[in-house]
Design goal:
This protein is about 40% helix and about 20% strand. The strands form 3 sheets. Strands 3-4-5-6-9-10-11-12-13-14 form a 10-stranded mixed β-sheet. The N and C termini lie far apart (about 75 Å).
Length: about 375
């Protein structure tokens, strides 16, 4: 028995090609694409302006298959978090953040994450697999049409999408790009390139490819001003160190829809939040590019037991931001949203069947950290 094709897996050009195999013309694929994404219809029988013959063909070979919702939590501040079942014991989280001038959806790209950043709850769960394009799109498809019904509106609710949920998007490049194109397509969600953001921990070759294939807004998870500290906090830095990452950011700017790169910086008490770290960041920015080419978003750390880390105090965060702003670097402090439902930045953990033995690696890293600290203390005491 042939498995039905999930039409959420296709961007418009992919759907045109697939419909062509059924003997259907481009305009039929466009109609179908609109029914799926603009109207949120999954039942082919309800797609009234499609030829009956096409509807009958589709019923036998295709589906519009959303992800099963495991749970839904609504925060006191209006934030909504969904847990979606992606099979084989894995579940991913998606978060909607309402604001007065926008509605932002935070979308996952992987079940877990293989990057393993010290301060990220997702990374501590390990990695299971990449999501398909259809699984990425199913998050937006469900959220947009659920929210329209929930808010009793026919207008578009989600104005911004950030690929900042579970996973490193650029390590799932093949599935990511068709999803981005569907988000941007006027026959799909019609989002501006400025309002779709891909967040990366610094996969340099894929940053270059994205600039050519689908240049949307870019956010880089920086979190440290030097290679020694970033190697520790963001292990990917050992493969693509800061000098390479900064050069890639400069190359991306030539194609980006905005004239700046956003750097995300999670504030960790006593680790990366001291004035000397701010001064190193200022020097890094000044030597890497000219003018106001980047912005910083300081993120209050959301503690979880396995991290062994603490949140910087508000006073320290404000002072850190002041130093950057006074140096001419636009810096904001991210407002924590949805922390009462574990939906804030760095808290998305879902439920992942880890294939990377991350817990064992964390134990070994902790032992190495302890040994290094003891050695440092011994040197200082001698």
């Amino acid at each position: 028995m042939t498995t039905a094709i999930n039409l959420l897996d296709f961007d418009l050009e992919g759907l045109v090609a697939w419909c062509g195999q059924l003997g259907e013309k481009r305009f039929r694929a466009t109609q179908l694409f609109r029914w799926i994404h603009q109207k949120g219809v999954s039942d082919f029988a309800q797609m009234s302006d499609l030829a009956k013959s096409l509807r009958e063909k589709l019923a036998g070979v295709a589906v519009v298959e959303p992800l099963p919702v495991v749970s839904q939590h609504m925060s006191a501040d209006g934030t909504i978090k969904w847990l979606f079942d992606v099979g084989d014991g894995n579940a991913v989280e998606t978060v909607f953040i309402p604001e007065t001038d926008r509605g932002t959806l935070c979308v996952s790209s992987q079940a877990g994450c293989a990057v393993g950043c010290r301060f990220c709850s997702t990374g501590h769960q390990g990695f299971s697999r990449n999501l398909t394009t259809g699984e990425i799109m199913a998050q937006l498809w469900f959220a947009e049409h659920f929210l329209r019904k929930h808010l009793q509106t026919d207008e578009r609710v989600i104005s911004n999408v950030v690929m900042m949920g579970m996973g490193e998007p650029l390590q799932n490049y093949g599935a990511l790009v068709p999803a981005l194109r569907t988000m941007l397509d006027d026959h799909g969600y019609g989002l501006s390139r400025r309002r779709v953001t891909v967040s990366t921990s610094g996969v340099v070759p894929m940053m270059d490819r994205l600039s050519q294939d689908c240049a949307v807004a870019l956010a880089v998870s920086l979190h440290a001003p030097n290679d020694v500290l970033r190697d520790h906090l963001v292990p990917l830095n050992r493969k693509y160190p800061l000098a390479e990452l900064m050069q890639a950011c400069q190359r991306y700017l030539d194609f980006a829809p905005r004239d700046f790169i956003t750097f995300e910086y999670c504030m960790l008490d006593g680790v990366n939040d001291q004035p000397e770290h701010a001064r190193q960041l200022i020097e890094l920015v000044r030597t890497s590019g000219k003018g106001a080419w980047c912005k910083f978003n300081l993120i209050p750390f959301n503690p979880f037991p396995a991290s062994g880390l603490k949140r910087s105090s508000n006073a320290v965060v404000q002072e850190f931001g002041r130093l950057l702003n006074e140096a001419g670097i636009v810096t904001t402090v991210r407002k924590t949203r949805g922390d009462d439902i574990d939906a804030a930045c760095g808290q998305l953990a879902g439920d992942v069947k880890d294939r990377t033995r991350v817990e064992q690696r964390i134990v070994l890293q902790r032992k190495a950290d302890t040994a290094l600290k003891a050695t440092d203390e011994g040197v200082r005491g001698s």
